[in-house]
Amino acid sequence: VLFFLQKDPDYLKLWLDNFVSSYEQFLDVDFEKLPTRVDDVPPGISLLPDNILQVLRLQLLQCVQKMSDGLEEQQQALSLLLVKFFIILCRNLANVEEIGMCSYINHVITMTTLYIQQLKSKTKEKEVADQTPIEEFVRHALAFCESLYDPYRNWRQRIAGRFLSTVEKSRQKYKPASLTVEFVPFFYQCFQESEHLKESLKCCLLHLFGAIVAGGQRNALQAVSPATMEVLMRVLADCDNWDDRNPEEVSRKAELTLKCLTEVVHILLTSSSDQRQVETSTILENYFKLLNSDHSALPNPRRCRQWESRFIALQIQMLNTITAMLDCTDRPVLQAIFLNSNCFEHLIRLLQNCKVFQGHLDRLAVSTIQALTAVMHKSPAAKEVFKERIGYAHIYEVLKSLGQPSRELLEELMNMAVEGDHMAVGILGISNVQPLLLLIQWLPELESHDLQIFISNWLRRICCINRQSRATCVNANMVIRIIETLNSHSVLHCTCAENLVALLGSLGSQSVGSEELLQLIRLLRTEEPKRAHPYVVPVMRAILAMARKQGMASALQYFNLYHSMAGIAVPSIHKWPGSAFSFNAWLCLDQDQVDPSTTSKSGKRKQLY
Fold it and tell me: pTM of this prediction?
């Protein structure tokens, strides 16, 4: 058999044809589809004819050498058959390492580079000639690379929405082949002057990059270089200029680029500084620079209404990607990197700059709030940084300048307050009280009475859910903020005002100061002495609720040990007065809010010493 394979090209092609036909189900070259489960596996290399790999290497080398003169149709068909053969072999994962160590991949990359150069050139010959065989070879060549560098199809599972845990990845028996040094120059060159390259082929190249990063850390750190990051940013920047291209393909290209960047950020987080060629902070710096691109510098033909909608759509995708980036195991580390990258300033500037656009402003504002929430999620330090650098008064003014808010935007502020789904009242407590104060301040500005009622009703429920929530609101001076809002009673719906007064009574039963009580009484003054203020009855009920003690008597002053790191520190022994001292206190053990993220883990409890 080997003799005929070496001496008779037709026999070799026939043998390859039969082999590929027998295992055609393994040629899943569509990156968008999850690999089909097949019970059978292709044969191991040891079961193939002796020295067959050497014979095929020589055949592939001959094809490469003849590329400059142009391959004949028969040689094109043979080169495609060879690539299909290698893909099938690699679907037996035990073959991946040996195939990767051979020179096949370099020969295939050389041919693919030349073919892509042809596909990028716009000539009359290209318009007349059928480019299908060349495109088919390129797609199969990229799938061959994926088979070597992501044998378990981690990337395909990721884009399909299935995330593999670290434990699942550690159970993957076979490792990907070592990445060829040819890949980074190849990837960079493919996107140079690529205006006429099909968007679908660009998507395949992005899929391959994502597969390499998801396939294994060693290859990922080799692929993530200044050159490849420059390509991803350039591709992303090009996504707002569609020209006559398919809008769906351009949008998909942007989505894939952002998924690649997310994967890159996650892989860099798990590496040490001496392993990285690029720092996460550098990527974020370029990312925010693109997010806040100065559209006014563009030529007038591009600054049309259609371009604006595309640019905003891209900005929304980029904002949503920030949330995806922060969904990782090393979240606190990444949050610190985001803070050092001045992310809050960039996001607020985005809201300020977007006022020049005509449409989609509300959706952009919603995505910006989501990104801010993600950066501050479960991080007291990040919340403090936001208060100091930006301040909620400033973000309120910026949001108000965008016009009347939608229900979605207001709900996103609610989500920011509970750091989860605002509808989960009773499950989630208050994690960030500042958005609640902002919502109370915004109520008189809302023209929709339905929105006023909806927000005030939700505020009443979330703020009064337990002692901890009431204490949080009282400490944030919410009582004064409510009274200030009630002063605008002429624009408040009566149901909204009643909800606010009831909330006031509940918070006052927790703690109320003389100044707050004085402001509340002053609220009832009217210009006509004989005419009662519409709030008289609900305010009197609220004051009675403050005075009335329900349930067990409780201390008016206490230590709040709600936070997981909270405790009471005592002086060191040598500072004790005398030989010892005692400390006596009653304990009030409120029921903790359930954190959905920790329900599956072992429970936590406070310890008393």
Answer: 0.87
Q: For residues 423, 429, 431 and 435, what is the CA-based torsion angle, rounded to 10 degrees? A: 50
Q: What is the arithmetic mean of pLDDT over 247-260?
A: 91
Domain that holds residue 84: 1-169+189-194
d(CA 447, CA 457): 17
Q: Spell out a b/e string for 249-271, using b for 16 or more CB atoms within 10 Å of the CB, else e.
A: ebbbbbbbbbbbbbbbbbbbbee
Which strand (E) or helix (H) includes residue 19? helix 9-22
3-class DSSP assignment, residue 394:
helix
More confident residue, 103 or 573: 103
Query: What's the CA gap between 264 and 217, in Å, rounded?
Result: 10
In a domain, 140, yes or no: yes
How many domains does the chain contain in total? 1
For the segment 157-185, the average pLDDT, to the nearest whole number, is 89
pLDDT category at 279 given cuts 50, 70, 90 is very high
Q: How many other C-beta atoms are found inside a 10 Å radius of the C-beta of residue 64?
A: 16
The amino acid that residue 469 corresponds to is: S
Tokens of 392: 């909620």
CA distance linking residue 89 with residue 19, whole number of Å? 10
Cα–Cα nearest to 208, from 117, 143, 137, 138: 143
**What are the E-state strand segments in 508-557?**
none
**Does residue 468 sit within a domain?**
no
* 133-147, 381-395, 519-533: least confidently modelled range: 519-533
Please tell me what DSSP assigns to residue 360. -
What's the pLDDT band for 599 if we cut at 50, 70, 90?
very low
Q: Where does the pLDDT of residue 152 fall: very low under 50, low under 70, confident under 90, or very high at 90 and above?
A: very high
Helix axes 226-237, 247-269, angle to 10 degrees: 150
Where does 23-153 have alpha helices with state H?
Answer: 52-65, 73-90, 96-101, 104-120, 124-128, 132-149
- Please, which residues have CB within 8 angstroms of residue 530's CB and are 6 or more apart in sequence? none
SS3 of 404-456: the string is CCCHHHHHHHHHHHHCCCCCCECCECCCCCHHHHHHHHHHHHCCCHHHHHHHH
Q: How many CB atoms lie within 10 A of CB 153?
A: 19
pLDDT (average), residues 203-215: 96
Distant-in-sequence, close-in-space partners of 345: CB < 8 Å, separation ≥ 6: 389, 390
| Average confidence (pLDDT) over 350-354 | 86
The 10 Å CB-count burial string (b at 16+, else e) for 297-316 is eeeeeeeeeebbebbbbbbb
Q: What is the residue type of 376?
A: M
**pLDDT (tens digit per residue) in 299-311:** 455 555 667 778 8
On whether residue 63 sits in a domain, the answer given is yes
Structure tokens at 529: 């002495």
* Inside any domain, residue 12: yes
> CA nearest 158: which of 267, 231, 302, 238?
267
Paired with 425 in beta bridges are 428
Q: Dmax of the chain from CA atoms? A: 115
Q: Yes or no: say if 341 and 325 are a contact pair by the CB < 8 Å rule.
A: no
On whether the CB atoms of residues 514 and 554 are closer than 8 A, the answer is: no
How much of the chain, in percent, has pLDDT values that exceed 70? 86
